[in-house]
Hints:
- With about 60 residues, this protein is an alpha+beta fold.
- The protein has a 3-stranded antiparallel sheet.
- It has helices spanning about 10-15, 40-45, 50-60; strands spanning about 15, 20-25, 45-50.
- The chain has a single domain, classed as Factor Xa Inhibitor (Irregular), CATH 4.10.410.60.
- It is built from 3 helices and 3 strands.
Amino acid sequence: MPKQKTHSGTKKRFKLTGTGKVKKQQAGMRHNLEVKSARRKARLNNDKLAAPQDAKVIKKLLGK
């Protein structure tokens, strides 16, 4: 049986931590940045962990 290929879009958007959790970038930092406060932009700029339900699918797409 052939190997499963890694999903290209997924590997660009997500990273696994050492313990196997999935890190992702938060939404809301693409446009209208002059409207948002510096405090809000700083908070949005941090990475976040994906929900466990989503992490299961993401790991499968990453081939883990």
